[in-house]
Amino acid sequence: MALALHNENQLAGYWTGVPARPLTPRSWLQPLSRLLEKHSLLPLPDEAVRHNVVAPVVRRVAKLLPHAHTVDWMHRSMRWFDRWCANRVSSLNDVGAVICYENAALHTFRAAHRQDMATILDAASFHHAWQDRHYDYPESDAVHRRITEHKDAEIEQADYVLTVSELARQSYIDAGFDPVRVAAIPVGCDLERFSHSTEGAQEKHSHDPFTFIFAGHAGLRKGIDTLIEASRRLDQQGINHQIWVAGGEDPNIPWNQAPSLERLGRLTHEELAQRFQRADALVLPSRHDSFGMVVVEALATGCPAMVSEQTGAKQAISENESGWILPAEDTDAWVDRMTWCIHHRDDVASMAPKARRDAQPYSWERYRQRVTAHLTDLLMDSHVPS
């Protein structure tokens, strides 16, 4: 989004924790640069970028704590970053709007309103009420109550909300947010990397077992237990298959219940692209996934996708043409569809061209076009202050 705004000469500033520009050699923060850089540095002007790495450092340290405490301290760090931004809003001139990432917006929004700026919430997840209906939170009730009260307060201060899928948008509407003030702007992926990364990919052979691939953090939220049970049933029926599991994982996953699952661990983008090209179908039985970028990444390689109806990226799939959409926790439905795929391997393989076509609207270039056009229209609309 920052790049999109910069390319349209609409970016007044980009304030971030993760370094987006190289930290200066004299900066005491410079040694932390390698620790914090998860993404490529951005071609933004130095004067537009401000860093505060306290929040990401706290998040890194918090991951060493028990999970319930990790959540608490991660949210505390985001609130600290929010206050740091809010203290600097008053110095801005000729700025029409601020866009803040969720959980780090409340104080900045309040400061922006005092400056007569529009406030736009960049919401990567579902509305918290929707999440609570579908997912047990690990933190204590007291901490969870404090987090949700903070979320409610920042949503109340938002003039507009940007979500990443129609499914996520609906979660805000279901929670009572004005439909006129919430939009779905699907994110993108590097289609070039996934459609052309053939180096190291191996040719498929008809005598190989039908291979499904799961990509993402293996845990209850992504429905890994549903996949394990489905694989166990296929094994019991003597149906030859294998499932690759790519990504990190929650503790205490009962992997031994499904011998046909192979854990690959965390992969680079290039390694993941090669696995998608070698696999026959993606499986993602998420209980809630506001988008699920791996879906369009798999489609871009020609790998059909089987996803749950609680996955935002389901909107990229043409049913029975580039993939399938199934109930999130209906193991019977997953076993039936996986069995069909195994017995109709040629039909699944024939879906590759349609899968690649369905991925095309989800490039980062198309995202930048969508988001800048929408923000331009938004700030000219009477529903939102300008």
UniProtKB/TrEMBL annotation:
**What highest taxon heads this organism's lineage?**
Bacteria
Q: Domain named Glycosyl transferase family: which ranges?
A: 201-357
Q: Name one Pfam family in it.
A: Glycos_transf_1
Classification via InterPro entries: Glyco_trans_1 (IPR001296), Glycosyltransferase_grp1 (IPR050194)
| Residues annotated as transmembrane | none
> SUPFAM superfamilies, per this entry?
UDP-Glycosyltransferase/glycogen phosphorylase
Renumbered to this chain, the signal peptide range is none
MF-aspect GO terms:
glycosyltransferase activity
**Alphabetized PANTHER family for the sequence:** SULFOQUINOVOSYL TRANSFERASE SQD2 (PTHR45947:SF3)
Q: What is this protein called?
A: Glycosyl transferase family 1 domain-containing protein
Its taxonomic placement starts with: Bacteria, Pseudomonadati, Rhodothermota, Rhodothermia, Rhodothermales
